[in-house]
Structure formats: C-alpha cells, structure tokens
Amino acid sequence: MMKTSTYTSQIRPAIILLSLIFSFLIPGCKDPVKKVEDTKAPTSSLKLHTGDHKYYMADAKLSVLQWKGASLNGLNTQTGYIYLSKGELKVESGRLTGGVLEIDMNTIEDKYHGANSKLVNHLKDPDFFEVKKFPFAKIYITSVTPAKIGLKTINGDLTIKGISHPVSIPAQVEIADSAITANAKFTIDRTLWNVRYKSAKFYELLANQTMSDSISFQIKVVAKKQR
Question: Where does the record place the Lipid/polyisoprenoid-binding YceI-like domain (predicted)?
Fold first, then answer.
C-alpha cells in the first residue's frame, strides 16, 4: 500500500501541470490572434542631403504643378494643381546638375483648388493614379544640358504608380546665391504609367467619351540654399 500511495503522489503533480498547460493552449487554438492591419498612411522614404551647401531644398509652399487633361476631341478639358512634398536641386560650379523632386499625389486639386470634388476623388482612385497605394510620384534629375537660349533640357526619370520612364523637360532655370527658380512645361503619355482610363488604345468607346492619352504639366520649382 505504501508503494501505491507514493507512486500516486508522484503522478498527481504531473497531471496537474499538464492540465494547466493545456488550459492555456486550447483556448489559443480556438480563438486565433487576429491580424491587425496597418492603417497608417504611407510616408515618404525620400532621403535628402540636408546641410550640404551644394544642394538647394525645394520650398513646398512656393512650388506647384499645374496639370491639364482633355477628351480626345479636345472639347472637354480639365485643369488643376498638385504640390511637392519635398525635393532638392544639386548645383556644381554654378550649374544645375541633378536632384530629385517628390510630388504628393494626395494634394491633387481641381481648377478651383478644391481637394474633395468628384473629379479629384476620381483622379485618386484606381482608374487613374491609385493614390492610396502610390501616394508619391518622383522626378529624378540625372543630367542638365544646354538647349535654346535661356533654356536648359532637364533629363531624368519620372516615376508614377511605381513605374519609371525617361523624360526630357525643357526648362528655364535661374540660379542665385540663395535660391533656384525653375519653370518648365512638358507633356506625357499617361498610358506609359498604366493610367488607361478611357484610352482609345485599350477601350472601344464613342468619340466623345474617349480621353486623350496626353497629360500636360506646367511646373514651377523654388529651391533655397540651406543655411
């Protein structure tokens, strides 16, 4: 009888311990941990050379892009604005040689500077620029070459919706000791950046419904030397 009692007294704590372990594990299997989605808005990953006197930092308050789109027949035209989030222009030996400009796609406005109109909301959805997924566009300047008198050709890559294509932009550039002002006009084929809404290349539509593949931009950039 003593042997049986001793054996039982040794087994009982082990059974209690196992019961406690299973009491924690089993509810976890029945009620798996819910995946918490990150609802924070995407933030810029662009790194700038702050503090370097060769770089002029773009002033987001003074810089602006005007955009223009139209139907294929040109009868229905829409215009508006969009703004930079940050950027820099590189100067060497008194000449503009490079830089990068980041465009905040969430700042799209219509011609009345409305930021929440039906047009603006449509431009932000997947039919056009899918801003929730691609909140920033970028212009990377790789070289600047002389053009006509008073003009430069800014060569680089334009990234929209995560897609990059080379661009050459004629611009008027004024460089002073404290600031750079650049003004440019250029046109892109939106379909190269997978903006296909009502494009005749991809949809069979009536003439008055078809939209032009061209989007025109007029851009003004003011960049200031960092002190």
Answer: 55-224
> Can you tell me the distance from the alpha carbon of 200 to that of 203, in angstroms, rounded to the nearest whole number?
5
Kind and range of the H or E element at 16? helix 2-30
- Assigned domain for 166 exists: yes
The beta strands (E) that lie in 27-134 are given as 55-58, 64-70, 77-92, 95-110
- Give the structural domain span for 112: 55-225
Q: What is the pLDDT of residues 69-90, one digit of tens each?
A: 999 888 899 999 999 999 999 9
Helices and strands: H and E segment counts in the chain = 2, 9
β-partners of residue 96 are: 91
Q: What pTM does this model have?
A: 0.78
State the total domains in the chain: 1
pLDDT of residue 35: 38
With b for 16 or more beta-carbon neighbours within 10 A and e for fewer, the 34-53 pattern comes to eeeeeeeeeeeeeebeeeee
Residue 67 covered by a domain: yes
Residue 29 is assigned to a structural domain of this protein: no
d(CA 218, CA 184): 6
